[in-house]
Amino acid sequence: MKKCIETILLSVTVAMVSAQEPVVIEKQGHFSVAGKTIQREGEYDNSKFVGWATQEEKGQSYRADHAFVHYQIPVQPKKLPLVFIHGYGGSGVCWEMTPDGRDGFSTLMLRKHYSTYVMDLPGRGHAGRTSATTTVKPVADEMFWFDIWRIGVWPDYNKGVQFPTDSVSLSQFFREMTPDLSDHRQDVTAIDALTERIGKNILVTHSAGGFPGWMAAMQNQKVKGVVAYEPGGYVFPEGEVPAPIEGLTGGVQGIPVPLEQFMKLTQIPIVMYFGDYIPETPSEKLGDENWRVRLQMGRKFVEAINRHGGNATLVELPKIGIYGNTHFLMQDLNNTQLADLLEQWLDVSVGQTQTMAKAFSSTEQELIDISNAKWQWMSEKNVDKLESLFHENAMFVHMGGSWGKEAELETIKGGFIHYKHADIHDVSVKFTANIGIVYSNIHLTSMVAGNEVTFPFMVTEVFVKENGNWQLGSLVFTRLLERTENQ
After folding, report:
1. For the chain, N or C: smaller number of CB within 10 Å?
2. Looking at the domain assignment, is residue 50 inside a domain?
3. d(CA 252, CA 136)
4. What are the AB hydrolase-1 domain coordinates in residue numbering (predicted)?
């Protein structure tokens, strides 16, 4: 039965994108931000020719250390644009298209009416002009990165992997890699300069781009949220840095920052997504081990944010029934599904929803009615009804942790959490094959350990239809910040 639900949930594929309408773009282009201009002393003599590669530098200038930005603005854009930040050894191309030619994340979000700004950080891609004196040495390293990025263990692909497994796509993927010629302190300066130019925005980071994302968000209050895909590093308040986590690839340690600076991260919504093939215990596989320690430190980071009153959520995709994702989630075969998850989080967490009356189809209304009945049964502690509704392998993700069906039923029956009332807003439903997903924004009043509390949540419910009946496969709570007008 477990294999059955895994197979069902994995059936969410790229078929959804084949019938999409063309994207209507109001404006697009590119520009550079930040960087420096080096001016040599003296007067330039344009009567002398030394050579094409060798110059008499006297009196000449040299612009370098900037970031390159490619932007697209759709017709009727949503309020806040998305700024995409790549990781180590790559460029913004990882957001723009997949190795097998499908829409990348920036295009998928453009279709959802988000303005997109895709960066090549200093020293990478289109921004390769650097002030550093460097020598780029060819290094044969592709098999190493195949392992590190959890595509598999060379030459074998991971079982059920969402990465395209044909040789042409793999070659295209490796050809996206670029030399890294930057001083990474320039990354934060570049992100800050872009933020000053375009105004309020949401940062969407990947891997090594995660750390400069945290730093930029602490530096500039015009950053109104951070979405981090498998970030590689984290910050903690001084005096609260967890012990380093050792691992086969060198482990990971938190970076201390002043508490006042860290607290700025508690004022914006944050969500982190991690993919599959990440073990809980030490592994001899390089990729598994590298991301085991970073995921575990990420849990501590989220706990620190929330302990200080913030709103951070960690989504481990296998725990909500999404399997097979590599480190490059945004390029995997199910990237449309992940873009839908991002859209829902953005709509609710940072106020991007365009509120309007909506008429639901009969099938959509059926699922909404089941979802509403579930809240009533939870309020009544009707574990018999819930027992039938919950799938055998259902997962429940709360702020305090995640657990399975039996633990959730016991929690409800024992009264440790009593779901008294859910005030439901902004419901939407999406279907793929025999999977239905209900997204809702709620204010939930609960009794927790004897105390009554009311919090706003974004709730994602994944239902699976088996033998003609809908069953709840996963229920994910994401706590939201109450927003003020100037946010």
Report:
1. N
2. no
3. 27
4. 82-301
Token pair recorded at residue 162: 């969402």
Q: Please give the radius of gyration of the chain, using alpha carbons only, rounded to the nearest integer.
A: 24
Q: C-alpha 104: how far from its chain's center? A: 14
In a domain, 216, yes or no: yes
Query: Can you give the pLDDT at residue 401?
Result: 78
Per DSSP, the three-state class of 383 is: helix
- Whose CA is closest to 108, among 123, 98, 100? 98
Residue 46 located in a structural domain: no
3-state SS assignment for residue 397: strand
Residue 79 lies in a domain: yes
DSSP label at residue 127: G
Please tell me whether residues 340 and 396 are part of one structural domain. Answer: no
d(CA 205, CA 276): 18
Number of domains within the chain:
2
Q: Which of 300, 315, 349 is the last residue of a domain?
A: 349
For the chain, what percent of residues have pLDDT higher than 90? 65
For residues 263 and 420, the model is more confident at: 263
CATH number of the domain enclosing 445: 3.10.450.50
Angstrom distance (rounded) from CA 409 to CA 77: 43
Confidence grade of residue 344 (pLDDT, cut at 50, 70, 90) = confident
Per-residue pLDDT tens digits for 67-99: 999 999 998 899 899 999 999 999 999 999 999
Q: Whole-angstrom Cα distance, residue 286 to residue 60? A: 47
Residues 154, 190, single domain; the answer is: yes
Residues 25 and 168 grouped into a single domain:
yes
Does the pLDDT of residue 17 top 50, yes or no? no
Q: Quick one: pLDDT at residue 356?
A: 37
Q: Are residues 189 and 223 in the same domain?
A: yes
User: CA 72 to CA 348: how far, in whole Å?
Assistant: 23
| Domain around 225 | 2-41+65-349
Separation of first and last alpha carbons in the chain: 46
Residue pair 58/102 in contact by the 8 Å Cβ criterion: no
Four-point Cα dihedral 222, 228, 232, 234, nearest 10: 50
Residues 6+ apart with CB under 8 A from 290: 148, 247, 248, 249
Q: How far is CA 479 from the centre of its chain?
A: 17
Q: What are phi and psi of 384, to 5 degrees?
A: -65, -45
**Is the model's pLDDT at 291 over the cut of 70?**
yes
